[in-house]
């Protein structure tokens, strides 16, 4: 609950709603006092309705003012909820970008998407409903209880004792619903993640004849979600029954005591009627809070996961500018752990300006961890990374990455045109620069052969392109970036001989005049590097200096 109250705009909204509740309370007292006066004047005083025209007009004005205050509350709550959802999604997107691919690769994509989209959406139940409802329930009933105590102390005592009792019952039922709401959210995340994973691996599942088995697993998760949701609804219905029963019983108790004293002549009719009219108004905010409390439980369950993501420790987020001029990159006695697993242990490595370094090792040796460190996607557990004499953690990460071009083993191309994917390297590039980069990467010929040339849509994950074409577009993107540091992660690992030859020629052009780090499984496939560093289980086995 406390993190939710610290969301931007929640406390001002609660204070504003409390003020509106006090104004609404004054209007409620005025409204029913006018009604009681009219009924008493017409049925006991014998006045005609025409003689009460001013009272009718006053009652209409009070009713309109009360409706306007409720409308103002709802509009303010809706705007606050929209703002909270927008700002929280922005924070989540920024946090996921800062955490980098190292964090995302360890999560389920479907579940993360559920957190960002549906998780933020469920906060509307807390901000847009529970906060205004709680403010009205905290301010309006005490005001009305004081008024009833002044009008009829016995009825006021009944309200003072039964109102808090209903709140306690609501809290007890809500405690039961809290665990059910968390189970519902967790199951929904599993279902979303399973569905996305099934879509991604559908070809493999079909080929191996496991599609129906996977479908059965999804059905089982869906059935679990159905049962958990029904459990949440049962608890919500129980909460509603408790509130309705308690409020009805208390109202009936007030009505009986008032009616007996009215019959005995101990209570004037107008006052007795006013007490009876105010009693349902006393319980109305508490009854509404029951439904709002159910919405807040869903928000709390989603918020637990949201704030868990926001609370993850991000790699260095410094603010210093990157030093000008050629950069010397150095890893000094770096250790990197992922939980209990040690990926790098005491690694020291220097990349001098304009040098070419080959980093080799078997799978799991720590090569990818070195790349993540250099890109700022991970922070050393021990040791440090230095860029131009400045710790990488102190540098502005966006400014540092502008000085780096990265070509991964399997480059990702976003749904969109070829031109849009190339301009990821430099959004402000001109058409001439775009074409020049494509020619340098040996990609211009196949791009112009596509149906719409540079305006051809590559499809989801570039499904319409071959592996070699996809890689050449990634190289063109790196050419367009024109960065002084180039990191290549096994770019020719999955290519045929013809494609590999073209890619090697493009890589040779790209490496000219840049500091290059090539990651590979085998040193025998490469030549022309100033130093070769072999990693074995996170340790440097030995550096080998080769002629250029």
Which class do the helix and strand fractions yield?
A: alpha/beta
Integer average pLDDT: 81
> Within the largest sheet, what's the order of strands?
6-7-8-3-9-10
- What is the domain total for the residues? 2
Query: What gross morphology would you assign?
Result: elongated
Task: Write up what this structure looks like.
- This protein has 548 residues and is an alpha/beta fold.
- It has 2 domains: 2-310, ABC transporter type 1, transmembrane domain (ABC transporter transmembrane region fold); 329-545, 3-Layer(aba) Sandwich (Rossmann fold), CATH 3.40.50.300.
- The chain is built from 15 helices and 10 strands.
- A hairpin with a 2-residue loop joins β1 (329-338) and β2.
- The chain is elongated, with a radius of gyration of 34 Å.
- The two termini are 63 Å apart.
- Mean pLDDT is 81; it is low at 544-548.
Summarize, please:
Its main location: membrane. Keywords: ATP-binding, Membrane, Nucleotide-binding, Transmembrane, Transmembrane helix. By secondary structure, the protein is an alpha/beta fold.
